[in-house]
Design a protein that fits this description.
The complex is a heterodimer of chains A (301) and B (350). With 301 residues, chain A is mainly α. Chain A has 13 helices and four strands. In chain A, α3 packs antiparallel against α10, α8 packs antiparallel against α9 and α12 runs antiparallel to α13. Chain B has eight helices and 21 strands. In chain B, the strands form five sheets. Chain B has a six-stranded mixed sheet with strand order 7-8-9-3-10-11, sandwiched between helices. In chain B, strands 12-13-14-21-15 form a five-stranded mixed barrel. Chain B has 350 residues and is an alpha+beta fold. The chains are: A mainly alpha (301), B alpha+beta (350).
Chain lengths: 301, 350
């Protein structure tokens, strides 16, 4: 007995030793930078970028309040908060649109014969073969005033002036939707593929209408996939940087751009770090709700 | 059901089947896998559309109705219970979808739980139930909306033998208590024989014979039915004399046998006769007209199967009931006589 226990202990130790490189890697390249950002957010900005090593909560105060240049009095400023709210709305809107388009797409894929399903998955993942920046610029070429859509509309005589699409909220939404749609489709597809379609038949046999089959059987049973898809779309679109910058023309800021701005021309690293922390807190909150929801689902399902 | 036909591409799954199922009947579709019985059932449920032909319910065509519009429910082979619902939610699902109010659904669910003997299990998740219990929930769920017809697609095939036998009795009881027409699909001939009022034997998309269990077992219409239902012996011979419904058949081994003669068969020429193993008797005297050598003796508890070979080489099985009066089965390798009592053999249509 004792020998077996010793062996086990040895085995455990060896296993821990073998995972060490991975753990070190994660610590060095994921945890450490985060700690640096966290530390920066509690410091004072240096004049030419970087930080002064001095503790300060100024960055977080600056998120909600504006300091008067002359008497240092604080007045509430909703400017940054509005950008956060806007970004949040963009994130939600992108998620909803992706869900509305992605779910039927995933359903279509999952109901194809098994041989053709992999081709569909391949088609969905093709956009990943090129860079996000390249794809965003491609969208620009399609929707700009001299772009593909407007050229066609003009040559058909449907409009006499180009329809302005680029540098609008619509453009940002379109870009976000296009960039993140696969993240919605793939997890939903994965759970739909596992769905036992005999259950769909059974509910149909028990007088459920098509809509009821969807809401009472298919959606509850594929909920983990739907939730994962929503999260995978919401998180990156909430923190999106390239898409709003290129398609929104920098006029409609989102958090990602705001953060980039602080580290760039504004030279306020602590404020940028504080924004990053606040953004992360939001995302963690979303994750937390997702995990709780899933855990609840397991206990009664 | 009138002249129903279903084709998948060039494959005829169901080939011009006409069946008449009576109200309040326990009707069984029996056949080997791939014979079209499940396709037939799915057409009744509305999951498949007949290529041609009509399906009538109470003299009205239900061809245009979708599954959710037919007063017909199905018990699926794998039960297809909704895993995210409790037992009670599963049973009440049909009624809920029909728009019944909660205070109407609850008593029906209670009644159904009582009917399938699962009182008090209503709040349990279906995933925590055993196979037999899931089977009962599936039954209760399909019965709760009081369908005109209940379709059962090999519902017992996933259960072990003991459970299967008790569920057979249970199903029969449920059918009697609810007065609902049951259409039962199975490939298990024993299941079909024990439960059904009438059986339709199917093969290759066609219905070969419809009749009561006794009819089909004792008067099989053709070689397939005879071979599929129970064990049987086929013996080749020639008709020497046909008188009304009885024919004298001279077997290849030389013995003459009196065999029942179904209508519409030629009264001369080579025929096959069929004798059930339990009807053959091993005679003590070796001088009987039918002589055979014992090859194997298999003990089955209630009876013993004696495998013999006739002089002309054809195999024969005799089933002897095991009694405690000292009649021991013959020894392997010995030569015995066989006798076929009058009225147990039948001439077969090939």
């Amino acid at each position: 007995m004792a020998e077996i226990k010793d062996m086990q202990r040895l085995d455990d130790a060896r296993r821990r030793f073998l995972t060490l490189p991975a753990v070190l890697f994660i610590l060095a390249f994921a945890a450490l930078p985060l700690l640096v950002v966290l530390a920066y957010s509690f410091m004072k900005p240096a004049t030419y970028g970087g930080v002064e090593w001095q503790f300060s909560t100024e960055a977080y105060v600056g998120f909600l309040f504006q300091k008067d240049i002359f008497d240092d009095s604080l007045t509430f400023s909703s400017e940054y908060l509005l950008i956060f709210a806007r970004t949040f709305l963009f994130g939600i809107a992108t998620t909803v649109i992706c869900l509305l388009i992605g779910f039927p797409t995933a359903y279509h894929m999952a109901t194809r014969p098994p041989q053709t399903r992999n081709w569909w998955v391949l088609l969905i993942t093709i956009p990943f073969w090129s860079n996000l920046l390249v794809r965003t610029i491609a969208v620009m070429f399609i929707i700009r005033d001299e772009g593909l859509i407007n050229t066609i509309l003009l040559s058909l005589g449907l409009v006499d002036q180009p329809v302005t699409m680029i540098f609008t909220d619509f453009a940002i939404l379109l870009g976000l939707f296009y960039s993140f749609l696969p993240f919605m489709i793939l997890p939903i597809y994965a759970s739909l593929e596992k769905l036992d379609f005999r259950l769909v038949e059974a509910s149909y046999d028990l007088y459920a209408s098509r809509f009821q089959v969807l809401t009472r059987i298919i959606i509850p049973l594929t909920w983990p996939g739907i939730a994962t898809g929503c999260l995978l779309v919401f998180i990156p679109s909430f923190g999106a940087y390239v898409t709003p910058l290129l398609l929104g023309g920098g006029r409609h800021l989102m958090i990602g751009d705001l953060i980039a701005l602080q580290f760039g021309s504004s030279r306020n690293w602590p404020l940028g770090s504080a924004f990053s922390m606040i953004l992360m807190a939001f995302v963690m909150l979303a994750l937390f709700f997702q995990i709780r929801k899933n855990a609840g689902g397991v206990s009664h399902g | 059901m009138l002249n129903v036909k279903k084709e998948f591409g060039h494959f005829q799954a169901v080939d011009h089947v006409t069946l008449n199922i009576e109200p309040n009947e326990f009707f069984t579709l029996l056949g080997p896998s791939g014979c079209g019985k499940t396709t037939l059932l799915r057409m009744m449920a509305g999951f498949e559309t007949p290529t041609s032909g009509e399906i009538l319910l109470d003299k009205r065509s239900i061809a245009g109705l979708l599954p959710n519009g037919r007063p017909i429910n199905t018990v699926f082979q794998n039960y297809a219970l909704f895993p995210h619902m409790t037992v009670a939610e599963n049973i009440g699902f049909g009624l809920k979808m029909l728009g019944r109010r909660r205070n109407e659904i609850v008593p029906v669910v209670e009644e159904m739980l009582r009917l399938v003997r699962l009182e008090g299990a209503g709040e349990r998740p279906v995933t925590k139930l055993s196979g037999g219990q899931q089977q009962r929930v599936a039954l209760a769920r399909a019965l709760a909306p009081r369908p005109k017809v209940l379709l059962l697609d090999e519902p017992l095939s996933a259960l072990d033998l003991k459970l299967r036998q008790s569920m057979q009795i249970e199903l029969k009881r449920l059918q009697a208590e609810t007065g609902i027409t049951f259409v039962f699909v199975t490939h298990d001939q024993e299941e079909a024989l024990t439960m059904s009022d009438r059986i339709a034997v199917m093969s290759k998309g066609r219905v070969l014979q419809v009749g009561s269990a006794r009819d089909i077992y004792e008067h099989p219409a053709d070689r397939f039915v005879a071979g599929f239902i129970g064990e049987t012996n086929f013996l080749e011979g020639t008709i020497v004399e046909a008188k009304g419904r009885v024919a004298r058949v001279r077997l290849k081994s030389g013995a003459d046998v009196a065999a029942a003669m179904p209508e519409g068969l030629p009264t001369s020429g080579d025929v096959t006769i069929v004798v059930r193993p339990e009807h053959l008797q091993i005679a003590a005297d070796k001088d009987a007209a039918l002589c055979a050598t014992v090859e194997t003796v298999v003990y089955f508890g209630t009876d013993t199967h004696v495998h013999l070979r006739l002089k002309d080489g054809s195999p024969v099985i005799v089933r002897q009931q095991n009694r405690r009066d000292g009649t021991a089965p013959p020894d392997v390798g010995t030569e015995v006589g066989l006798s076929i009592p009058d009225g147990v053999a039948q001439v077969l249509k090939d």
